[in-house]
Write a structure and sequence with these properties.
The chain is of the alpha/beta class. Helix content is about 40%, strand content about 20%. The chain has two domains: about 120 residues, 3-Layer(aba) Sandwich (Aminopeptidase), CATH 3.40.630.30; about 210 residues, Rossmann fold (3-Layer(aba) Sandwich), CATH 3.40.50.620.
């Protein structure tokens, strides 16, 4: 134990990344594509324990079988938590195997959701999800049988408005959850504001911030990948388990409306898993055809493409007046510059 050394792994180095990937593979784990920071304990330059994080999510925690009686998990987690706190991140989540549940419980983490006996999501606040449920319940007012729509809205388009108007006409109350992860061109607060402004004419709609519990980096990080990968199914199941076991029950949500997804393989796969998981637990799923213009589905990606090409006037036919007015404002200028200088799928 005294011979073990602490090492911060440089993920931009292909050799160190390969070294970490090989160690994780030996522990029957895969290397996450989007790690921000990785830490290892080594014995004569051999990795024997490691852990990483992205945002506020602890990932890829593993200890070599020969070293599992030495309390190395606690050293790794303590290091990562201290580093996260140093960066101002205090509400933390961790993905791990259910067999490790007791280890992380002793380190101050509490279970949120478990899927297929393969993965468990835990957080470091005993009342974390209950606090969120209290917030959205308070926002909702009178509790009645309801439906839900979950949107990213990057930005809010006529297609989003059509889906929401359709859903709102078919339920007593409609809850809209805006994905809160800031991995989109339009920041979360602006997306939330544009949704609220765009649906203000609907009296039975409540707009919520999705925060950490609705298609977030915690519940479904692969949502932000451009293509389907092997992690998508299990992460979709984690997100949908949280939705069905906590959010839907708290708000009496009996149906979820989704738009057809002709462009993004990951979102399409998520919708399919939703149709398999939710009806057996009493939550209906209705997939609504996209609103089209000139035979082409209206989408936020199409709007961003027009912005990227500098054709703001053409956007007017694809978005509500509130969104278009925002795009013409000085507040939108840095967002437009960013879109025109980069490429983001979501």
């Amino acid at each position: 134990m005294n011979d073990l050394k602490e090492q911060i792994l440089i993920l931009s180095s292909q050799s160190e990344r390969s070294r970490l990937e090989s160690f994780l593979k030996a522990q029957d784990l895969s290397l996450d594509k989007n790690l921000e920071y990785s830490f290892a304990l080594t014995d004569e330059d051999r990795i024997v324990a490691t852990g990483s994080f992205e945002g506020n999510i602890l990932k890829c925690i593993a200890v070599d079988e020969e070293y599992k009686s030495l309390g190395l998990s606690a050293i790794v987690i303590t290091h990562l938590v201290n580093e996260l706190h140093r960066r101002g991140r205090t509400h933390l989540f961790i993905y791990t195997k259910p067999a490790n549940k007791n280890i992380f419980s002793e380190l101050g983490f509490y279970p949120v959701a478990e899927v297929d006996s393969k993965v468990i999501l835990m957080e470091n606040r005993r009342d974390g999800i209950q606090t969120y449920l209290s917030e959205i319940t308070l926002e909702s007012g009178t509790s009645v049988p309801s439906a839900a729509v979950i949107v990213n809205c990057n930005p809010f388009t006529l297609g989003h408005r059509y889906l929401i108007e359709y859903a709102a006409s078919r339920c007593e109350k409609l809850h809209i959850f805006v994905v809160w992860e800031d991995k989109s061109s339009f920041p979360a607060e602006i997306r939330y504001r544009l949704v609220k402004e765009g649906v203000s004419h609907l009296s039975n709609v409540v707009v919520h911030k999705g925060k950490d519990y609705i298609i977030s980096n915690a519940t479904f990080p692969s949502y932000f990948l451009k293509e389907y990968d092997d992690l998508v199914e299990i992460q979709a199941k984690i997100d949908l388990t949280i939705f069905s076991e906590y959010i839907a029950q708290a708000l009496k949500i009996e149906k979820r409306f989704v738009g057809e997804e002709p462009y993004c393989e990951v979102t399409s796969a998520y919708n399919q898993i939703m149709k398999e998981m939710l009806p057996p637990v009493g939550i209906g799923v209705e997939e609504v055809p996209r609103l089209s213009l000139d035979g082409i589905a209206i989408s936020a990606s199409r709007v961003r493409e027009l912005i990227r090409n500098g054709d703001i006037p053409a956007v007017k036919d694809l978005v509500p007046e509130t969104t278009y007015k925002f795009l013409l404002s000085s507040e939108a200028e840095p967002i437009i510059r960013n879109i025109q200088s980069s490429f983001k799928r979501h």
